[in-house]
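Long-time lurker. I teach an intro course on protein structure, and each term I like to show students one example going from raw sequence to a predicted 3D structure in token notation. This year I'd like something fresh instead of my usual example. Would anyone be willing to generate the tokens for the chain below so I can use it in lecture? Attribution to the forum is fine with me.
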Amino acid sequence: MLEVRDLHAAYGAILAVNGVTLDVRSGEIVTLIGANGAGKTTTLNCIAGLLKPKSGSVRFDGEDLARVPAHDIVRRGLVMAPEGRRVFPRMTVAENLEMGAFTRKDKDGIRADFERVYGLFPILLERAQQVAGTLSGGEQQMLAVGRAMMARPRLLLLDEPSLGLAPLIVKRIFEVIRTLNEAGTTILLVEQNARMALKTAHRGYVLETGQVTMVDDAARLLADARVQAAYLGE
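-- Reply from a regular --
Happy to contribute to a lecture. Here you go:
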């Protein structure tokens, strides 16, 4: 479904991604783990069309995305829930969810997806008319994921969905990730909680200073002594 080949990206003179190659197959959960500054978010931004790479390629369903603007990438079914939630703080919860469906015209489908989001995150239904900027961090993260779901993604990019959240909220977010995947959504997950990410994912990539240094089944990475020492506190 997704093919990234020899991706290089920079912010000014600072090279953030240095030759990343990765694949995501339909139906998988794939995770990228690594320290702060390893290039994880930059990789996602390039895939989503938010940052133009210096070189390399990103292909989705066989199509090169180099000249496809970000909003058209969303229309193709590749959608990102960004780091830091990025909700529209002065809009209500319901309006934020509507924004997630801005590329769609199927009113019945949109209505059904509202119900789906509210079913997964009942607190959002309770807060539907509340201004998003007044939500707790956990509620805003649920809203960010729900808003991405409203675009009906086939490939969902999740950037640090557990960052700064209480353990119970983290548990719920990862339950939803599994539920979405079981319902047919392919997921590429960037996550600093490496243990939770590897327990959830099918495969994983380890990024260090902009390069992939390890790739394997998630269970094998979880058991790897190098990964345990570097990312799992063992």
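Some talking points for your students: Residues 114 and 150 are 7 Å apart (CA to CA). The radius of gyration is 17 Å.
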